[in-house]
Sequence to fold (745 residues):
Amino acid sequence: MITKIIFVLIDCVAILDMYFTLKATDRIKEDYGKWLSQAMLAGIFAIFSNILIAFAFNPIIAKVAYAFYFASINWILLYLSAFCLSYTEHHYLLKKLSVPAIVLMILDTVSISLNLFFEHVFYIYQSTDGSGAIFYQTGFKIPYYIHLAIDYTALVIALFAIIYKIIRTQSIYRAKYTIILSVLMLVVLLNVMYMAFGLLLDSSVIFYAVAGTLIYFCIRILVPRSIMNITMGRALDDVNEGLILFDLNDDCIYANAFSRQRFNINESEYGFECEPVSSVIKSLSDKGLKYGNETYVRSAQPESPVAEEHYNIRYNELTDDNGISIGSYFLIEDTTEEFYYLQEIKDAKNAADAASRAKSTFLANMSHEIRTPLNSVLGLNEMILRSTDDPKLIEYANSIRTSGDTLLSLISDILDFSKIEANRMDVITDEYEPHQILRDCHNYFGGMAAEKGLYLNINCDENIPSKLTGDKKLIKQIMANIISNAVKYTKKGGVTVDLKTSDNENGKCDLIIDISDTGIGISSEDKELLFDAFRRVNEKENATIQGTGLGLAITKELISLMHGSISVDSIRDKGSAFHVIIPQKISDPTPAGKFDLNTKAPAGDGSGELFHAPNVNVLIVDDAKLNLMVAKELLKRTQVITDTAGGGAEAIEKCKDTRYDVILLDHRMPEPDGIETFRVISSEGINTDTPVIMLTANVVSGAESEYANMGFAGYLSKPIKSKELEEMLIRLLPDDKIELLTGND
Ligand code: ADP
Fold:
């Protein structure tokens, strides 16, 4: 009886095992997983019949149970070999054999079933064990051996399929098939050994249960793990980065090819005391860190084209899914190429910056050097004009003035163009009145147009906002370029300027400037070239008109700097119309009203002084004697009292005991220069609050705002224009000391 109980217990364990394996087979590839699950199902049937055999209480039940048992084993083997064929990719063979095999199995099953009536396969006989328990056992007839032969043929085919695959497979995948073969061989061996014992009850089916579980375990875990280990190792060897793994005892367990080769690592001897990991750990601990990123630099190999090798090394902890530490790793990235590339970029940038600085300095110097003597030339020429009535001399002096002005505008244009090219032209926005810009334009060009017998009409939309925000200096420069061209290239008629704005849209609008003339016009082919730098169109006709071909190129660039646009309409011999749109912000939307040319603006066309101020004391500081003389002479007609200083030291001395109303100060002077002199004057003595005007030939980008930031009350560029100087003095001097002259228009 005990034998039977043990036997049933073993069977129950086998059933559970098969059941769980069966449930798990959907986790393996369907191709062969389905065969394994069928085998497990047949196995469960076999074990149930086995239990029935143990408890059969008469030979008929025993005979039925045995028939079930033998038939189930048949199907187990059929499915197992189908699994083997599928797993070893013998799909063709499987397809060919499956129909005859199934037919054969069905016939065999039918034959075993008929044994119930004919007993032609096996017969039942009764025996007892020592305790007297009854066992029904089988005796076999010839067809049983045919049945066995069918079973074993299926098994043999499967074994051969696997062996064939092992022979054919060259790669590590051979292991995958070898594992399955070993499992099957083990099962066969156990089966044979079991049969040799000739036990009372046949429980060989449990080996199939074990086989199924083993196969499942191999396919799901063992094979993928072993393949993964090998392939991962190969993949990591192929990676162009280093990986070194350490276990919890800080023993090196793995180093990929990159780290082995670069740092001569032998896993069994490598440890935390070796480079580069020792340096990384030390640098991290110096920073109070256990893990992190560090750079590591070492001398390059002698044959290397670079002097140093640079690495970025990451040291981190390795944890399992539950966050428990299982070791640590170093990830090594070679950053040498990147380092030298960045170095090159930095060097190139420094060189470019140096070149750009050199160019700017050269421009500033050149501009300064040309403007300084030009200041004397034009200033003294002005003196001649003011002090003579001789028509011949006046004609010569006027020619000098025109040429001087042309030379000056040429220098300004070249400087502007270089600034734009070097991206150094700044857009400095501020609040301004559109009417004031128009008045300035009229002041500049009214006289010039009148001299040529042309009219200059300036109109402004009454609804234009009274105050806008934008770069008024650039807008004036743009308008000045276009108006001066219009005057230059017009012989009869005149120039009309129209100013308006688009509707207010969220505090923004477009400033729309239309400047048209009745001049020589531009042909449609020339229109395309109009905005090209250094390009003058219609050269023959314009040969006598001064110009560089830079004005419109600069104009266009300035407009696009402010995100605006320019277009031109022109008809040969009829005239041209330039249309400019520049987006601006509205600071005061109140309509500016009717445009009046004469409001507030100091009168004068440049030929006469704007004011008299006999009680005003002005100090002029310049190291160039001629410039001192020019400034002094230019101011003479305003009746101000002028005092001069030939350098900063003298100016500081004079400022100690004389109180001035305004000081005109040159920038570039021998020690102390204009800035230092200003600093001293404005911090000690009795002129600390005297307005100081920077009078300089330094007109590079941003100079004006730099001087303003330093505290200068005004900025005038050389050569001095007496009108500009007088206007600035009107602005800076107290009203009660000035007598404005209005009859100079
Ligand atoms: P320039 O210094 O020669 O005036 P610009 O760039 O200002 O250079 O102008 C380029 C060319 O466009 C001029 O040489 C001239 O032929 C033509 N041009 C510009 N404005 C006008 C105009 N209002 N009428 C006719 N031609 C013009």
